[in-house]
Input
Amino acid sequence: MDPDTRFMARALELAARGAGETHPNPAVGCVIVRGGRVVGEGWHRRAGGPHAEVFALRSAAARARGATAYVTLEPCSHHGRTGPCAPALVAAGVARVVVALRDPNPQVSGRGLRLLRAAGIAVVVGPGAALARRLNAPFLAAMRLDRPYVVLKSAPTLDGRIATPAGESKWLTSPAQRREARRLRRAYDGLLVGIGTALADDPLLLPQPRTRRPFHRVVLDSRLRLPPASRLGRSAHEHPVWAVCCEVPAARRRALEAAGVRVLQTAAGADGRVDLLSALRALKAEGVTSLMVEGGGEVLGACVRAGAFDELRLFRAPLLMGGRGSRPAFGGPDPASLAEAVRLRRGDPGPGATHELWYPDFGKR
Output
């Protein structure tokens, strides 16, 4: 492995430590190397806190002069909640900067690289780019999509069922799979379910371990049926809860808002329920840039039919349910032909994962 690849791999490893706490910022790592040895390391730990380059430069101190800095995303050049990182690298006397990805944020987008080059610093872009894109897929997508980055999570039997005809579903998957699914939630701004799931399961919908940042729990609730006394309603002051509706019964709205639930009204679809794409766009406008969708089957099916998802995380249970009345993992209207089916390509969920990762290939529908 050449030095640029090796040290960027370490920077990406550091960046991953911040995943789940940096939203809406990207997860970024930085390694400073002088004479072939690491002299400083850092990663972005939480939104609003110092960036990765700041921690790495503090660690390296005077040893940063003449060194190479490996950064997983283009150093920023603008003032936000913290100071810009590109000028900090210049001031520290770094001689070379290796960047995995250019930042698509219009406030950065090449400005940091130009500032470094103008200061006489050698700049290389590209090592580790594929893994850097994967690590920050929601952040990168937020720059081009008019909806949040959407990850579908389903836990079906081997024959694609999630409940018996009577609705029994606890538990199809193993404790290890359920723990992994709750950890995955941390990588996104929030979680979305339909009102049927909220009423049937009375879930809390929080990640484990909990995030220090706000974690948004969203219920598609056309007629505002979510009880204020539900676990979601009772915990709305701790972590945000959104009820997305298209009808607004005044008394129900007041009761939910009194409990701390945020009510968001959007357009109705042809079936009279919340229009999925309108709901996603409204959530993006409110600052929710990534969502895991956990059900039920009708909501997951609606995302598939609308082409409104970017990943599928599939936790298969080693069961066969059979029958005609058991509930499918992906509901909604049936496709008229195979041409309407969404084709998928397999991804790598990471070492030790108990689930499958799939990406939609909408170009091959």
